[in-house]
């Protein structure tokens, strides 16, 4: 059940050597289990104690897209578009132009949907687009008030097909390239979102301690995702241990940074709405939880890679000393640190691009812009996530080297003994494994 990198190499090995490697990995798993099993038990206990109860859940808010009596929300496909004088549309003012999309739904007659100017300016609405619109044509019959405004108003695009197509394409590409391991990774990802939806979010809404929720939920995700996607092996366990260490560092730094940087969580459009819906949930605590969760993917990536690097280096040269093995693996780790730090920074910069553009248009000092409420949260997320990531690499490398040396020491001694007595290396492995 070792890492896939070594499968091709093992096909050319002798049976004693294969059995020696399997025995070494089994000893490594037992060694790591003394640390990871208690951590897993603590995670399960913490989840059970903080599991959201149905009685304490906030009342569900109404559907924000629900229509008033007499109105409905319909969807259809745009047949043609025109720009006409607004006086031709009910409630329009003469002299100004309105963009109208004539839409048909389920074979019905075309309805003139008024498109808002911001949509026209940003992307526009084109023939063949599927859109959702507010149908106010029956409102007058219910209220008894004559309808003066437009009867059909654009709400949103229907994105089911393109997003569904991208999801299917993503799954096909992952499975085609990574095969069975890729399929397990996708299933693990679905399970991770299950933990997020059924534990982390409800627990936050019910006022559970954000730091404990973040640590418990993230640990549960990592235990499930890593072992399900990569299998139960010494490499995976080593990567998991390094991931949990990085997770702890990130959580500690996030707890300090959220308070020290005074991140309130009220700058977003949903901040005050969340306060009202959850009866005073801590928005800063939500930011704290987000800081921990946001770095899981990259943290998992570097620890798995670093653990595999140590095993590959050792299996290629088992006589390498502990110091040389650690130094060689850290050379790989430093390259990974450099590239991953860029990855984190650009990923967050891309997600916050509208905010960056808006701030760049303000006439203010650079330092004030970077530490202002608009960018402070993103910058803290980059810095906290990067520190946890960087520190996880040497720790993962050190643990991997210690485990691989502790479990492979018999092999190293046996090789030297075989060479001295003129025997083929590995001929007495079965007696010592």
Give the number of helices. 15
Strand-residue proportion: 5-15%
Helical content stands at 55-70%
Strand order of the largest sheet: 3-2-1-4-5
Question: Topology as H/E string?
Answer: HHEEEHEHEHHHHHHHHHHH
Q: In angstroms, what separates the terminal alpha carbons? A: 17 Å
Average the pLDDT over all residues and give the rounded result: 78
Rg from alpha-carbon coordinates: 29 Å
Question: Total domains, how many?
Answer: 2
Shape: elongated
**Structural class estimated from helices and strands:** alpha+beta
Q: How many individual β-strands?
A: 5
Quaternary state of this entry equals single chain
pLDDT < 50 runs, ≥5 residues: 1-10, 409-433
| Largest sheet geometry | 5 strands, antiparallel
Organism: Arthrobacter psychrochitiniphilus
Protein name: YibE/F family protein
Pfam family, one: YibE_F
Structure characterization notes:
The chain is an alpha+beta fold and 433 residues long. It has two domains: 4-58 and 182-432, no CATH class; 72-158, OB fold (Dihydrolipoamide Acetyltransferase, E2P). It is 65% helix and 9% strand. The chain contains 15 helices and five strands. The protein has helices at 7-10, 15-50, 117-122, 139-143, 160-205, 210-230, 234-260, 271-277, 283-294, 296-316, 322-351, 353-361, 366-371, 373-420, 429-432, and strands spanning 72-85, 97-104, 111-115, 130-135, 152-157. It has a five-stranded antiparallel β-sheet. Strand 2 (97-104) and strand 3 form a beta hairpin. Helix 2 (15-50) packs antiparallel against helix 6. The longest helix is centred in the last third of the chain and has 48 residues, at 373-420.
